[in-house]
Design brief:
By secondary structure, the protein is of the alpha/beta class. It contains eleven helices and 16 strands. The strands form four sheets. An eight-stranded mixed β-sheet has the order 3-2-4-5-1-10-11-14. Strands 8-9-12-13 form a four-stranded mixed β-sheet. The longest helix is centred in the C-terminal third of the chain and has 18 residues. The radius of gyration is 21 Å and the shape is globular. The two termini are 33 Å apart.
Length: 351
């Protein structure tokens, strides 16, 4: 069992810059403190010449929506492996190290997986989420988070045979084997063409379902709708304009807007050790970032207290929870309370 509380994960069906998405961002940042550092990964649309503009529209929206938090927004052009703008380039992905909110959005699901799987960008992203930082995905990025990814463009635009491709499998360490299908209620085809189920249509999607392993759960998310996964509490919240459809074991469950679901209904939910499956050097690097943040947040604290905070963070990074608890007690004895936050520990003087 982990002493870390993982960050909230918001999966949007579409409409990441639409008014209906506002409640999702508000929920994710309800306890955030200004200024909020926000990182937008350009990877999902990295193959497009206007990738920077795609992410830029999201940045403009969030700068206005979250203006109370004075957001410091950085676009990370981690667009293509084997180039200067690679998701494996430490400089290109630097903004993930201290981000307080991370966003990935529209583009190609399969391209997203190809570029991020096993990359430094992905490892840093997962490490930040494990340490409590909220993650937002929309459209293509939402599909890519699943155990398997729906190759939308290959089937809908190119005419490929029905199939699934490997996904980034973000939730597997939490015991959840999921497939995410945004645009669940899409109706762009009108009366002539069924474009629901992410442009597949009901008949074609039924055949896609038959290709899935029995242990996978499908999570269909309506457009302009967000599903927030609170892994620490084991609860999912549906916000926005529409609802969410769960397909598991041949049965469907529908959760409408403002509804809740137990994440254990999606699979055998568990909380992993915080660093499981992550590169040890990247995980340690994240711990060092948070230690620096602890020192910077309360310059008035005595040097002895700051040294204890740094030692406690090192103990937590080593998963020595007993030592971390002892150090917390020593900090309290000196008249300070330490509160763990997504941005690092915060010190407050008692009394």
């Amino acid at each position: 069992m982990s002493n870390f509380t993982p960050g909230l994960i918001a999966l949007l069906g579409s409409g990441e810059t639409a008014p209906a998405a506002g409640v999702v961002y508000d929920q994710l940042t309800r306890t955030a403190q200004a200024p909020l550092k926000l990182a937008i990964l350009e990877t999902p649309a990295g193959f497009q010449p206007n990738a920077a503009r795609v992410a830029g529209k999201v940045a403009e929206y969030l700068a206005t929506r979250l203006q109370r938090l004075r957001p410091q927004i950085v676009q990370l052009p981690a667009r293509a492996r084997g180039t200067a703008l690679s998701p494996d380039n430490p400089a290109t992905t630097e903004g993930l190290r201290d981000a307080g909110l991370i966003f990935l959005g529209p583009g190609s699901p399969t391209y997203t997986v190809q570029q991020l799987q096993g990359s430094l960008a992905w490892t840093r992203l997962v490490a930040r989420q494990r340490r409590g930082v909220p993650l937002v995905t929309a459209s293509a990025a939402t599909i890519a988070m699943g155990a398997l990814a729906l190759p939308v463009y290959e089937i809908y635009k190119v005419g490929a045979e029905l199939h699934w491709q490997p996904g980034l499998d973000l939730l597997r360490p939490y015991g959840l084997a999921l497939v995410f299908v945004p645009h669940w209620d899409n109706a762009e085809g009108g009366a002539e063409l069924d474009t629901s189920r992410c442009f597949m249509g009901r008949e074609r999607f039924a055949r896609l379902l038959a290709l899935l392993p029995d242990d996978l759960t499908v999570v269909g998310i309506d457009e302009h709708t967000g599903l927030i996964l609170d892994l620490g509490a084991g609860v999912g919240h549906v916000l926005g304009r529409g609802g969410v459809t769960i397909v598991r074991g041949g049965a469907e469950q529908r959760i409408e807007q403002k509804g809740r679901l137990a994440l254990s209904d999606l699979g055998p939910l568990r909380l992993p050790a915080p660093d499981v499956g992550l590169d040890a050097a990247v995980w340690a690097d994240m711990a060092s970032v948070e230690t620096v943040a602890a020192v910077a947040q309360e310059p008035a604290a005595p040097a002895e207290v700051l040294a204890l905070v740094a030692a406690r963070e090192a103990a937590r990074a080593s998963r020595d929870w007993a030592a971390a608890d002892v150090l917390r007690g020593r900090i309290a004895a000196l008249g300070w309370q330490v509160q763990d936050t997504p941005a690092g520990p915060v010190l407050r003087a008692e009394g």
